[in-house]
Amino acid sequence: MSTTGRGLHGQVLETLGPAITAGEYPPGSVLRTDELAQRFDVSRSVMREAVRVLESMHLVESRRRVGVTVRPKAEWNVYDPQVIRWRLAGADRPQQLRSLTMLRSAIEPAAAGLAAKYATAEQCAELTECALGMVAHSRGHQLEGYLVHDIAFHRVILNASGNEMFARLGDVVAEVLAGRTHHEVMFEDPDPAAVTLHVQVAEAVRAGDAVRAEHLTREITMGALQELDILAP
Amino acid sequence: MSTTGRGLHGQVLETLGPAITAGEYPPGSVLRTDELAQRFDVSRSVMREAVRVLESMHLVESRRRVGVTVRPKAEWNVYDPQVIRWRLAGADRPQQLRSLTMLRSAIEPAAAGLAAKYATAEQCAELTECALGMVAHSRGHQLEGYLVHDIAFHRVILNASGNEMFARLGDVVAEVLAGRTHHEVMFEDPDPAAVTLHVQVAEAVRAGDAVRAEHLTREITMGALQELDILAP
DNA sequence: CGCGATCAAAAAGTCAGACTTATATGTCAC
DNA sequence: GTGACATATAAGTCTGACTTTTTGATCGCG
């Protein structure tokens, strides 16, 4: 799943990135390239490449005569999938999941509305297939199978919206859904009402009913938000 | 405003990045690091750093024995501010503005609703100040002054939402608003109805009326969408 | 004729060392 | 105290040699 450290600089990033996003080096901290290179036992060129990547994510800023300084959290590129993964793996995972769920709640209804207008016949077919898959795995502790279809469902919606910005959130949504199933322990079967809503969304999209698709999807994401509030109010 | 090419690798990126995002090198194109280094007259180390940054944006993929291949558009990190800037400067600026305006329409109402719940007294003050500034510059071809306050207004809303993901879209919104004023030529004064809506949003946020703030903001962004439809249906 | 193993070339990846440049900071005269 | 100047520091750059992975071609065998 996770990109297994492409090259040496990638391996360095895999430990340095999470360390920074976890706040292990507080904002304003100063790192020196040479010291880091020694610490990770790589050449300076490799370390420089790693720093460049961190810099492009706005996690750090490299300045002459001073070093590599960690930037304040507010400046990070929090939409970078890599940064999201690092943060989800770290300590503030709950807060991160909260932010992402809100983002999801804002985007997905709009995406569903657009999908109702622009979805191809093939996408409609996929959608109903996913919904049926969810129904089939909704009872009897088949959580993994349910999750797969749930993720696929929301991915299709986002792609069918025709908006590239929405489409690129597919990975984020997948991460959130997976996180809910895996981390926050779910013993019980999914809420039957949610399953029904998914089926209805698929119908609405097929029927080209934008407002209905949007409204139903909003109910789904509102449910996700309430779920969070119950877990961590 | 724009980051003036920090270092040599930055200067390389400033021409290579826009070239790639403009589709000058179609997906699947293969570049060789050494050749690029020669072309830009920089050392291989510098070019490698530039490639690493492009790679972190998922614009290209570097593989041994094959070279640096351009990835399909669908895989780009379209939320990276740098990528957004490059694309806005390029040929598909209209489509990009469209995508971003839709994104805005989805996010800002939700952000306004949250702002009504969480905005501090100081933020409320800023908000009304911005709204008044918009009113003051709404007549008599003071478009630049109007723009400044408009941008500030939406930035405050996004920050006051308390959601870091929303807050980070401040730059995007600023870019969209500025693009509308500058590129799509606006001769006339802004729509009085829009100005009024901003004032009302400020009021609603101060009053803590989340649903009203959300609804009013949705009207604002709907207006922006309709504006786009008129310009490019 | 097809198919798998082997081999060579190509390009990225890595490293080490020398050198350049910007800049923060301390020093000194005034 | 303030300004100009000197110095040290860490990033930035370049070069050349070497390593590693991977592709695709060649060759032998069934």
From TrEMBL, chains A, B:
InterPro entries, sorted: GntR_C, TF_FadR/GntR_C, Tscrpt_reg_HTH_GntR, WH-like_DNA-bd_sf, WH_DNA-bd_sf
Lineage, top ranks: Bacteria, Bacillati, Actinomycetota, Actinomycetes, Kitasatosporales
SMART domains according to UniProt: FCD, HTH_GNTR
Domain HTH gntR-type residues, every copy: 6-73
GO molecular function: DNA binding; DNA-binding transcription factor activity
Taxonomic superkingdom: Bacteria
Name assigned to this protein: GntR family transcriptional regulator
Database matches in Gene3D superfamilies: GntR ligand-binding domain-like (1.20.120.530), Winged helix-like DNA-binding domain superfamily/Winged helix DNA-binding domain (1.10.10.10)
Alphabetic keyword roster: DNA-binding, Transcription, Transcription regulation
